[in-house]
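Write out this protein's structure.
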Amino acid sequence: MTFTKFQYATETDRGQLKTERTSHHPLLSVIKGDIRGSGSADEPPPSPQSGDGDPLSDPLGAMSVGSDPLHPPVSSSAATNINFEGIDPLSMMLDDPLGANAPLAGGDGGDATETSNNRGRVNSVEEAATMAAQKFEDELATPWAVKKEQVLRDYQVTSVRVKANFMKDEDNHEEEKALKAVDRTKARLEQLEDKESETPTLDITQKEYVSQLTRYHEELQRAWKDGERVLSIKIVIKCTRLLADTSVPQFYPSVFIMVTEILDTFGELVYERILGKAEEDDEGNPPPLIKKGKGKGKRMSRLPPNWTTNDINVNAKETCRNWFYKISSIRELLPRLYLEMCLLKCYRFLSINEYPQVLGRMASMTRGIGDPLVAVYCHCYLARCGNVVCHTETNYANTMAYDYMFGFKMYKSDNMKLMLKTMGVSLEEYLHLQSPAVEWIMKCVGKKASKSVFTTTLKHYRDYCGNSMVLKHIIDCFDPKHYAPNAAAMVSLVKMADSSKVGIIGVFQTIAARFIQSPPPEGQRLLVLNEVWKVVTKCDDLKQYISCATEWLEVVLHHYSSMELNVLTRDVVKHLSAANPEEIDSYAFLEPLVKLLVHHCYDYNGVIFKSGELLQILDKFKESRKAEHCKELLDSFAKHSDETDDPVLINTLFEVSRTLHDR
């Protein structure tokens, strides 16, 4: 039997599925406003009034006050029966926490994760996740030496007000005092009469301040070399007292870095002295020298490689205890705490596995510091020293992080507002000064942390803190696998955060970098991107917008479809076109974005290359730099593409080639 032309057409039409045209898509809100249809062209999108109870339109709108921000919406009648106390706020979520697995407006969930036919697409996604995971590990392992250089660059001032005695070097009068009969009662009375308020002050430049601390550092090493132990302690105590002065808060992070360098030197000197005592024999003789060639040689160690307190002689232990007795006799809390922290390594001479108790005790002692800025940097130094001596112990760091977030309620008090007004800083600036310390504490807490630790930390953030700076560091320092399964709820939590110098856009940029490693579940991806972009597209700061858009474009390139990619690239071009060229000194901030698009320009069958948005972005560069990017595009085409008969692609290739030819 054979079909005629008419019979073939009729049979073909009969076998086709019924299709309907639709114009609804969640990401079209970027250019047409928020459109939320049911997927059918016959049904109009819901009105704003009817969307008030829709979990997709407001993921947290149906929650009762005080409920978990990462819990699914509940009805008002059931809200009063929910008790979150003692329960993991993330584990209470359903598999589909915000109803994201339901059909989304303008398409089904499968569109967001359509598989590209390009060669190596799956491998590219896996490679990106691996690279993101390695980047995450590298950031957590960033050494303090790198971090302190960044702090010294970021926190600078023109002048610093100090007490006049700060510029006076310490002298050793111990021998003179030993020759005189000291009237202790008279000396004590004179000390009480010497009121601190009467001490004159003077303004010095930052360079003079740094130079004086450098002289103190050198004086400490000289005094120690000369055997003047008391003078060494006096110098360290005098420097540590500077950390109690917050009269110039903008410079406090840099002062912390410089003073703790002196403390580190002092701690190392004491440790090496006790270790030298431990190497001596019963008669006090050091180990013999082992000479190699014409050098001075190196002393043979009498201690085993993994020595414990059982291998330490009595003389070394008594010397170590004597140092801790000296530190404990310091009357002021802050110098006493800091000096004990820098000597934490020395506890190894006295005990085995006592670090958890010591670190926990010191974390509790820091609660006696009233100034929030001073307290958080004291926490930071304890976390840094504790991580060196016992990197597996984090309970003390958890306690300090929880204490810090619990203390946020004091920022609403009248006394704190008056203190900030006296300092001449806003609350946002004051919290920004604390950011380096909070970041380091969260690194110690989040490194290899369990899901329960993350949940408890997030619960403290939600209940007491709610600031975007803290949330950014939580997202940055904890493994994204803890919150990626509940990405939609996490985005809602970000949107609810109180803005600081780290704005909501900055937090969205951070979470995007983590989603490259651990993407949201497929059913939530369109919802997440839609909710994020409704905020990002309103950003007025072009550089901040481009930085955030670059991170999200990489997420889209690996985990979304070409439709979302087209919408985002069009929005980037829209922002660039709306910007005033006279207000932009250089378009160098576009480099990461262009490199990303060039690298992936042939994904999705070359949709980036053929769309034209990439060429519009390249037009913002100077001719020389634009030509270099065009050359990279042609090289990429030669490596990743075969022969093509696509007229749009061919035309674009000619346009790129013409740019190089006309240069």
